[in-house]
Amino acid sequence: xxxxxxxxxxxxxxxxxxxxxxxxxxxxxxxxxGKTQLLLDICNYxxxxxxxxxxxxxADISVIRRDYFNQSFxxxxxxxxxxxxxxQKLICASTSQFEKFVESWRLNNDFVQGGYYAYIGSxxxxxxxxxxxxxxxxxxxxxxxxxxxxxxxxQSLREFLLSFGFDDVLKISLEPIFxxxxxxxxxxxxxxxxPETQIALRNAYEYFELEDINxxxxxxxxxxxxxxxxxxxxxxxxxxxxxxxxxxxxxxxRELADLLMSGLVSVANIETIKGQCFSEQGLSExxxxxxxxxxxxxxxxxxxxxxxxxxxxDDNSLILIDEPEISLHPSWQQRFVEILNKxxxxxxxxxxxxxxxxxxxxxxxxxxxxxxxxMTEQLLTNASVHSLRSSDYHLATLFHNPGHSNExxxxxxxxxxxxVKAEKKFETQDLEKLRMxxxxxxxxxxxxxxxxxxxxxxxxxxxxx
Length: 465
What we know:
single chain, 16 helices, alpha/beta, 7-stranded mixed sheet
């Protein structure tokens, strides 16, 4: 099985094959053409569809739920039972402060580990928190909140971290939502707790029962006393290690995930570590620590996007990414789809829908199952037609913004000149290229040299055409 989001409304998203390979749709177009709204429409549609399936009264859903937890379940059972193609996980990601994805969406009867919907973004806004720590907190919760160990997830995460010099150990600083005094009041049933504490507990009750909250409150005391912890991504899973050599962590990774999900604890800071020995108790003397916030904005964006996606993904997922090029160096923009495909190659049947303004992301497409949706022209094309072409080619032909002295247009005009000069006639392909050049004239500034070249070509056409 492979998931493909074929259409949304009247818009065609993908026409390719249903192979187990991951598929990509790159959504391009002018500002205001509806790229972001398209991603929101896709997200809303599959949230609605999944909600309807889970809330149905069909006996099949009970069997599906049982088999899922027995790990004898195949996702295509959903399609057979309900006649709909539904992704196994819906992931929405953006590092833009203007993104519009919904922060949280959950169903009380959801059976997907970590939840069917995963959000990777800077919401909720917290005045004293950097966006990077807010996004990472959500991603870490997705990574840790699993009942079963997924070796592929750790493998993908380690491969990405090591490839970009982040290393496979993180040091995180945790911060409880209230103080030790307030915590003691909560434990003792003291009604004089602060309004902020009451609000935090009320929010936590949306996810957990009273008995669970009491257990989490007990664990919070450990975090208040030792707020820093090492996350080690090893072959055997995510290991928690104390920063102090004479202490051990008193809670599991799953319990930490519950604390993060409840909102009773948040990530206050993240640091990457080089040279940390997994088997050594406490922080190694040779370890080199670097705060994530001290890295470039591009490194932070790449780190957070991939940490979030890898933490959340499953086979047959639908991943919506809005403007991944923000703050990325041009070389990383050009390799973005390649990096994504390589890092997640152990997952199959996924469909990535990426809205972008970057010709560099489009310019080096070398993966199969990739199509380009031009929202301005409402045109869906196979990306192989545009593969391994220059940025100037994409600016002119796909982004409808050739800029000044576009090299692709100049080289095309010169090629036609030399060919017609030798053969004294225009072939069909020459006429198609000439029509393309004439279509570009209205997009060029009046002093652009391309205009003069095209006008000269038109004169030659009148002579030999």
